[in-house]
Amino acid sequence: MDMLPDTSAVIDGRVSERAGDGDLDTVYVPEAVVGELEAQANDGRDSGWAGLEELQRLAELADESRLALEYVGRRPDAIEKRDAGEGEIDALIRDLAERHDATLLTSDVVQSEVARAKGVAVEYVEPQVEETPDLAIEEYLDESTMSVHLKTGVRPMAKRGTIGEMAYEPIDEGVLTESEMRAIAENVVNTARSVSDGFVELSGDGMTIVQIADMRIAVAEPPFADGIEVTAVRPIVKTDLDDYAKADALRDRFTERQRGVLISGAPGAGKSTFAQAVAAFLDDSGFVVKTMEKPRDLQVGPEITQYTELDGSMENTADSLLMVRPDYTIYDEVRKTSDFETFADMRLAGVGMIGVVHATRAIDALQRLVGRVELGMIPQIVDTVVYIEAGEVDTVYDVTTEVKVPHGLVEEDLARPVIVIEDFETGTPAYEIYTFNRQVVTVPLDGAEDGGETGVERVAKQEIEREIRSVAHGHVEVELQGSNTAVVWVEDDDISYVIGKGGGRISGIEDRLGIDVDVRSLSERPDGSRTGSAGSPGAGAATAGEIVTPEITNRHVVIPLGDHHGETVEIRSDDEYLFTATVSRGGEIQVSRGSAIAEELEDAIDHGRTISVVPQ
After folding, report:
1. Domain check: are 291 and 401 in the same one?
2. 306 SS3 class
3. Which terminal CB of the chain, N or C, has fewer other CB atoms within 10 Å?
4. What would be one Pfam family of this protein (predicted)?
5. What is the DSSP letter of 375?
6. In a domain, 478, yes or no
7. Tell me: the pLDDT tens digits for 319-332?
8. 289 and 408 fall within a common domain
9. What is the 3-state secondary structure (H, E, C) of 500-541?
10. pLDDT tens per residue, range 472-519
């Protein structure tokens, strides 16, 4: 009997089995099958290697004259490979079986049914079911292990302990070799493809991320990484909302209406664990709950569907979810500008949104929205901030908007929309966010974690100095003498410029700021000292740099300077070089949002780093 196997039959080793029966005359192997096996082997898949081993067995049987072996047909072209899922390659194989008057051997039930319908002689054999492989990385896990870190040439490491008290420590004295790491990496990927509760989440050149049960495992290889590295992360604690402080109040808050919530905290603080507890509570309370994750690693019940990127975009995922109309969506890892914009769009569409955000303080989570969405829309997008520290609810903020005179100012004509951030339990205002002299400022109030000079004083001092330096040529110092009074010290030659004809210039500055400004000469200072305050070109400014507060608009990140017109300056983040730019005639630097420089600058702002300008 002449036989022509397809890829599935070759992988299962069913062709060489027939040789033992002695009823095989000629075996025709399609070149399309060889191409598929070669591609699978190049991808490191066991199926490809198993198929190639079967072809070698057939060659040995041919050498022993137990059968005749002939390779027939052609390799599929690029279009046929692209359309393989639609049956193009299977059709090539069926045509070859018919042309050579051979029986098609297959373990693919669809292939066999199509062949019968087309009148092609076919023999269907049940595919062999392999035992589920053991996951090699499990030998490094115990009940207290949250993550395992393996890399070529390094001792195995792990994070072990409890939430908030994790220790990164070696778990074996032996250094892992490249062959050991390659075997572990292949085992991870093959296991994810063969078990029912595993799947490949992301696959790129040098990086594969898989999910197996409750573990997220990242496999990095050259050229993406400098060596083979396998990192497995899993939750070690599953909690209920009742396990947290303020549980009763939070339950009422989540259920009285759909909310916009940011769950914030440092890495490893327990943000995702808390988000899982909230998701379970909402599901038990009769809400339709979905998640948006990349990769998917929240441990939630089967009733909650977990979505990832659709066609490479979370925006597409959001569009699909709006058709499903969930009551709440858990958005894990809101990080980039596009994430915040998608979060905002869904919240403004009426969906309850709970976002997980990295932040080292509760207020930092909210500040990451500033500049990414319209300031006045923030309380409609986020009305609750929950800060997690060491696995516990540390702080809960309530976010609202009021039209009022900001705290610390007294002039009635300074009333404006103010975002008020209050302690949820006590109702004590902790921060205010508002526009002051065309800039968005976040002002800590009494009771906030900032100490020393109040937020209003810092903002007022900064804005007064900015205004005066825009008209003065020399050194400028500001001294606040009350909530609405300040003394400005300038060089003798600058007094007339600052005051202006008939006092018009200084009056305009006073009107804009709502603060009475007394202009005096530096030579009149009792001690004759110069403080070299931040932002002033005083002693040491050329080396330490002038500290600035960038403003994020819809289109630009603006670095206001006031002077240095036409000069070339360096922009630094915590004294690390970012980029070099030329100051415009208007005394500022504008960086277009979306550019690599803007993304780096926004990241530095998000993480609370000090932005400074150093003249070259």
Report:
1. yes
2. strand
3. C
4. T2SSE
5. G
6. yes
7. 999 998 899 999 99
8. yes
9. CHHHHHHHHHHHHHCCEEEEEEHHHCCCCCCCCCCCCCCCCH
10. 877 888 887 766 788 888 888 888 888 888 888 888 888 877 788 888
Regarding whether 278 and 215 lie in a shared domain, the answer is: no
Integer Cα distance of 114 and 595 in angstroms:
53
What CATH number did the domain enclosing 223 receive?
A: 3.30.450.90
Measured CA to CA, the distance from residue 138 to residue 548 in angstroms comes to: 50
- Give the residue among 356, 344, 292 at the shortest CA–CA distance from 321: 292
Cα 411 from Cα 392, distance rounded (Å): 42
CATH number for position 504 = 3.30.300.20
| Res. 528: pLDDT tops 70 | no
My answer on whether 546 and 496 are in the same domain is no
In this predicted structure, the answer to whether residue 529 has a pLDDT above a threshold of 60 is: no
For residue 352, the domain's CATH number is 3.40.50.300
Last residue within a domain, chosen from 201, 233, 265:
233
Rounded CA gap, 399 and 379, in Å? 6
Q: Are residues 268 and 291 in the same domain?
A: yes
One-letter amino acid identity for 197?
D
State the amino acid at position 393 in one-letter form: V
Question: Which pLDDT band, with edges at 50, 70 and 90, does 542 fall under?
Answer: very low
Is residue 268 packed enough to be buried (19+ CB in 10 Å), middle (13-18) or exposed (0-12)?
Answer: middle
CA dihedral 587, 492, 468, 405 (to 10 degrees): 180
Mean pLDDT of the chain: 83
Could you give the angle at which helices 455-469 and 504-513 cross, rounded to 10 degrees? 150
Amino acid 588 reads: E
Of the chain, the end-to-end C-alpha distance in Å amounts to: 85
Angle between helices 337-348 and 314-324 (to 10 degrees): 10
Half-sphere exposure (Cβ direction) of 41: Cα atoms closer than 13 Å: 14
The answer to whether residue 81 scores a pLDDT higher than 70 is no
Backbone angles phi, psi at 404, to 5 degrees: -160, 170
Domain shared by 250 and 390, yes or no: yes
Greatest Cα pair distance in the chain = 114
Instruction: Select from 213, 233, 253 the last residue of a domain.
Output: 233
381 and 516 within one domain = no
> How far are the Cα atoms of 41, 301, 365, 399 from residue 334, in angstroms, in the given order?
38, 22, 10, 19
Residue 407 has, within 13 A of its CA and on its CB side, a CA count of: 20
* Distance from C-alpha of 530 to C-alpha of 165, rounded to nearest angstrom: 47
Listed in sequence order, the residues at least 6 apart from 66 whose beta carbon sits closer than 8 Å to its beta carbon are: 19, 22, 24
DSSP-assigned letters across all residues of 88-104:
HHHHHHHHHHHHTT-EE
45: number of Cβ within 10 Å = 18
- Residue in the block written with tokens 């609370």: 608
Q: Domain containing 162: what range?
A: 136-233
pLDDT score at 388: 93
Give, for 50, the enclosing helix (H) or strand (E).
helix 46-63
What gap in Å lies between CA 436 and CA 414, rounded to an integer? Answer: 9
Strand partners, 592: 556
Give the integer Cα–Cα distance in Å for 106 and 91.
13
Is residue 449 assigned to a domain?
no
Name the one residue in this structure whose structure tokens are 């100490």.
Answer: 451
Strand partners, 167: 160
pTM given for the model: 0.57
Angle at 20 between CA 15 and CA 21, to 5 degrees: 95
pLDDT of residue 550: 87
- pLDDT band of residue 539 (cuts 50, 70, 90) is very low
